[in-house]
Design brief:
Helices cover 42% and strands 17% of the residues. The protein is α/β, with parallel strands linked by helices. The chain has three domains: 2-58, lambda repressor-like DNA-binding domains (434 Repressor (Amino-terminal Domain), Orthogonal Bundle), CATH 1.10.260.40; 72-175 and 308-333, 3-Layer(aba) Sandwich (Rossmann fold); 177-305, Response regulator (Rossmann fold). Helix 2 crosses helix 3. InterPro entries: HTH_LacI, LacI/GalR-like_sensor, Lambda_DNA-bd_dom_sf, Peripla_BP_I.
Length: 343
């Protein structure tokens, strides 16, 4: 065993050691390992054979960093409006899964980052200046719209899931949240539910748009209906307790609830069950996202459908075009009301 160990070629750790063994410069080794014709064939093959013999593999990331093509896309989740929200949130995981599939199918790796700004407006600037990424995909805009706009003015390979507003600089792919909110409220009103509640924290720009749409539907109905806001957090840590307290304090005349997400809707459904209230007989319930989990509840959840899979493909497509130097427009996708058993 000792003889085999002594006869085994020494493992080479870097290009400098391989260059010394081959009797050439480090630059020649680098070019030979990259298969460049600048190194004559005999020398190139000899260096490549030595590398194989001594188990040397070039540091691909270092090489990519030198060329500015890292092959890595940053997938960023900013949580300025709700710092306790987790990556395990079903919406995040659904969109992240689609993004990961689309990126890896195109030969890219991804670096996932959950960012809590904490009153620091330079977090995105530092990320794009790190030199580690070829581009950035953002899952949501949170309350960081102004920060994203500032960076996007000079950093082009950035695409966000979220809203698009007139004059917006950064490229966004997302749902018409205003229309989605309007569809949800119209559906509840059509069932004769005149007193409505909205469960959601409107510090997130998408959620604010959903409430605006619901309020527009109530105003247009002209039936004396109204909608009351309850600032339900997206984080699951204390969601159940908050919903239970809100249901306890809620006007008993409210017979329809529209929630900012399916996760909130599912937690609300559970709390209503524990209170002995039946859905939809006592209270009708509509969620937002139409996640796969929406069909697993009892009763099955009515929800506003977002085209998450299509949106992920559009985000990646637009980002790669931006990396290639093209300009891309934002995309606002139409929502659909999916009627199931809860409303």
């Amino acid at each position: 065993m000792a003889t085999e160990s002594r006869d085994k070629p020494r493992r080479i750790r870097n290009i400098s050691e391989l260059a010394k063994l081959a009797g050439v410069s480090a630059g020649t080794v680098s070019r030979a390992l990259a298969g460049k014709d600048l190194v004559n064939r005999e020398t190139r093959e000899r260096i490549q054979a030595l590398a194989r013999e001594h188990g040397f593999r070039p540091n691909q990331m270092a090489s990519r960093l030198r060329t500015g093509q890292t092959g890595v896309i940053g997938v960023v989740i900013p949580l300025g409006h709700d710092k306790r929200q987790h990556i395990s949130d079903p919406f995040f995981m659904t969109l992240l899964g689609y993004l990961a599939d689309a990126l890896t199918e195109r030969g890219y790796d991804l670096m996932l980052s959950r960012v809590i700004p904490e009153h620091n407006d330079e977090w995105l600037e530092r990320l794009v200046d790190s030199g580690m990424l070829e581009g950035v995909l953002m899952i949501g805009q949170s309350d960081q719209f102004a920060v994203i706009e500032q960076v996007a003015a000079h950093y082009r390979p950035l695409v966000a899931w979220g809203v698009h507003q007139p004059g917006q600089v950064h490229c966004a792919v997302g749902t018409d949240n205003f229309t989605g909110g309007k569809l949800a409220a119209q559906h509840l009103l059509a069932q004769g539910r005149k007193r409505l509640a909205f469960f959601g924290d409107i510090r997130g720009i998408e959620i604010e748009e959903r409430l605006k749409g619901a309020r527009a539907a109530v105003a247009e109905a002209g039936t004396g209906a109204n909608i009351e806001l309850f600032a339900t957090p997206l984080a699951t840590d204390n969601m159940a307790e908050r919903i239970a307290a809100d249901l306890e304090a809620m006007d008993p005349a409210i017979t329809g609830i529209f929630t900012a997400s399916d996760v909130i809707a599912m937690a609300t459904l559970r709390q209503l069950h524990e209170r002995g209230q039946q859905v939809p007989r006592d209270i009708a319930l509509v969620g937002f996202d139409d996640l796969p989990l929406a069909t697993q509840t009892v009763p099955q959840l009515s929800s506003i459908h977002q085209q998450i899979g299509r949106g992920a493909e559009e985000m990646v497509s637009r980002l790669l075009r931006r990396i290639a130097g093209e300009e891309t427009d934002s995309l606002v996708m139409e929502p659909r009301l999916i009627v199931r058993e809860s409303a």
